[in-house]
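Handout for the seminar on molecular recognition.
Each group receives one record of this type.
Step one: identify the two inputs.
Step two: read the structure output and locate the region that could contact histidyl-adenosine monophosphate.
Step three: write two sentences on what you found, then compare them with the reference statements printed after the record.
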Amino acid sequence: MTFQSPKGTRDFFPQNLAALHHIESAWRNASVNAGFDEIEGPTFEHLDLYTVKSGDGIVSELFSFTRAGGDVDYALRPEFTPTLARMAAAKGRSLTLPTKWFGIPSHFRAERPQRGRLREFKQWNVDLLGVDKPSADAEVIATAIHALANLGLSHDDIVVRISHRDVVVKMLQENGVPEDKLPIALTLLDKREKMAPDVFAKKLTENDLEPACFEQFDGDTVIDHEELTSLQDELNAWGISDWCTFDFNIVRGLAYYTGIVFEIHERSGAERAIAGGGRYDKLIEMFGGPSMPAVGFGMGDVVLSLVLKDKKLLGDGSEFLPKPDVFVISAGGDADAHLAPTIAMLRNAGLHARMTYRATRNVGKLLTEAAKTDTRFTLILGEELTRGTVVIKDMNSGEQTEVALSDIVSHITA
Ligand code: HAM
């Protein structure tokens, strides 16, 4: 009998996990540097949490289930914002504001697996609660950019496309979209970039919408909007305006956003969105908490990895696997009895020490094995032990030094 991993999931072999950890540590460092505290929540929630205000898109992609013998509906979390809003609502007025939280949870969406889209993925969430000014939007965007810059990306590679729900709605209304057609017009606008132009045109006809209503979204739109003007000033002040552009094709599919929304993309449009976020000033109140403005984003590991690989900023992950400080081999005979105590001594001293498991005592072959691990030093236990010394080979220079047993650690850490 053979088994395969479920469709849209990944097995993380050591190098794959090392690559993920590389990305996660850039996320974690950027969050901590910006004063965000890490949180986590349950991997599954009551189904209702998502049906209330996440939008049809995400609800149709839920993995939902009941406990064997139970009748309560649960769902694996497809995103973190509802959990975060529930947690903030539960703390209520005892929460010190502003509250700055980040998390790196796993998420599950039952969508069709494709390039950049899986059924299980990691998503960095950064959320700032309690500040209704665009300075908060700028700060979360700056935090995202900080992580991307730490991974080696620049504003030549990446663009943050910023929009505002009210502006988009106003533009659609001015273009003649009737009130009852606004929801579908917004949904189609959100999906337009992922559709072929003829499919988009067909959807417009099906929904009685005029193509002319969407035309002005194609060009640059100069907008006079107080919140966006003040956000632009903030982006300048944070020194990140080169990374950002206003783009009213961005709507965001999730229903809880209330104002500014944004997506982060590879600049040439090579992949799907790396991140998406915005303001959700009503969600915490809707979940029974106090009225609390909030802004944040989610950045997935899947698209980001593709972009980093495309730009040669990420290999297969083996470049991040830990390399030994020292590899211990024995030339055989009495020296074998020293293998375990030597390894134990090195590890107790905090060094990354490995040894051979091979039966051979052919030093040449064992040195080749040591070299394959990329170790800095190889320690050879041999007849020198009778003099109270061992031979340590520097694997970069090839230099071999006879070192007293008591000086091994200081020689390696020097
Ligand atoms: P979202 O746009 O649904 O927003 O997801 C944000 C990012 O998560 C996407 O840009 C993408 O990188 C990644 N992502 C989403 N679905 C998948 C998938 N099936 N496979 C791989 N990656 C995926 C949210 O989830 C909001 N809750 C973000 C947020 C936080 N807004 C405010 N705070």
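Reference statements: Residues 79-81, 109, 111, 117-118, 121, 123, 125, 127, 254, 273-277, 296-300, 302-303 surround histidyl-adenosine monophosphate (CB under 6 Å). The chain has a mean pLDDT of 94.
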